[in-house]
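Progress report, Aim 2. The chain analyzed during this reporting quarter is listed below.
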Amino acid sequence: MKKIIFFDVQDYEIEYLTSACHGRFEFEIIREPINDLYNLSDIQKQVEIISCFTTSRVTKEVLEKFENLKLIALRSVGFNHIDIDFCKEKGIYVENTPNYGNMTVAEFAFALLLDVTRKVTYSYNDLKKAVVNPHNTIGVELFGKTTGIVGLGAIGAEMARISHGVGMKILGFDIKEREELKEKYNVQYTDFETLVKNSDFISLHSPLTKDNYHLFNKEVFEMMKPSAFIVNTARGELIDTQALYNALTDKKIAGAGLDVLESEETLTDPDYLVDIGRMTTQSLQKTVLNNSLLKLDNVIITPHIAYDTHEAINRILNTAIENILAFAEGKIQNNVY
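Predicted structure tokens for the chain:
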């Protein structure tokens, strides 16, 4: 019977994982993430399957500790926290859980857009301080405006559906054009520069690749409308944080709604407080910038929770277990490389 170690496990996942694995696998549930600070026992080092979330840091140094690892069953779509090159070299499969949060993430992206354009959180915080100043909470209507969607995969398509329903014009940028999105939601595909220059709102839904790292940089922010807002629920590294901070403070753009940040783990992961020396110079710089962004009135930042609904969590767990069951039968599905 194969053994699985589940890392990063939340309380609400335990019942499901226990029920799904009982009688099928030996399994161990660990609440902590797996990273270079975690001390594996000799028995744990022999495991063939591990499962983790994006808060784990599965580096080469971590992977080398597992002597017989064959599968990493992710409970996420993203896999940039895994050393994929090492996994390829060692023949370790990395299977993700695609399409679990299409509607969930798109709804959250739209919520961020509404929040930052209508100053919902800003006015709420003012009210708690007994401050009511309508002049400071003047917002922007979405109806009739142009939204640019960068990445029109499953989540981006849902963002197009919601935007179309609100009466927005939609510009799209992707390597592949989908005719059904043109027909259903009047998506007008265009080049990146045209989208940037003509959008009132821009929402990012692209996976992070070597080619789109810092896709939004100083030059791109200077092309945007001064009245434009940007929303990012994809990956923090799509945006150059220094360039974003400068664009916001210099009023090159109007605002931002962010669920992801560069070096976001340094804000929430206690490991970095236990050992501050773990931070590189770059991550320290990003952390300072992230904290500065948190202080701006025209920015809404949430802690990478766009995926976080009951429905999406159930889909994540279902797919992760299905991946594991298929692997146990010699079938490979949802491998990311």
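The radius of gyration is 21 Å. The chain has two domains: 3-100+310-328, 102-301. These observations will guide the mutagenesis work planned for the next reporting period.
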